[in-house]
Design goal:
With about 90 residues, this protein is mostly beta strands. The chain is built from no helices and ten strands.
Length: about 90
């Protein structure tokens, strides 16, 4: 089950990391991502419907454009220098 994913080591991967704040969620135009004391390197969104993935474009700071995503549930994978986390977002139109 994806909610139980956690890998220990130099590069940690976890799901629903409490250090990652996603807002607004649900969203239709943009999401703000903030992760405690880390700089975000990249973000991808993975569609739960067809498992396609999309690189999210940064608008400014830690704000990412989601306006091109269809309505639905997505997993977002957020990569920092030493950490990767996966969270669920909901896109509405």
């Amino acid at each position: 089950m994806a909610d139980d994913l956690f890998v220990k080591g130099d590069n940690k991967t976890s799901t629903d990391d409490s250090r990652l704040i996603v807002s607004p969620n649900p969203s239709s135009e943009y999401i703000n991502l903030n992760i405690e004391n880390e700089e975000i390197e990249w973000v991808i969104a993975i569609s739960m419907e067809n498992l396609k993935y999309f690189h999210l474009k940064i608008i400014k700071d830690n704000t990412f454009d989601v306006s091109n995503l269809k309505a639905g549930v997505y997993l977002i994978k957020v990569k920092t220098k030493n950490h990767e986390t996966i969270n669920k977002i909901i896109i509405i139109n």
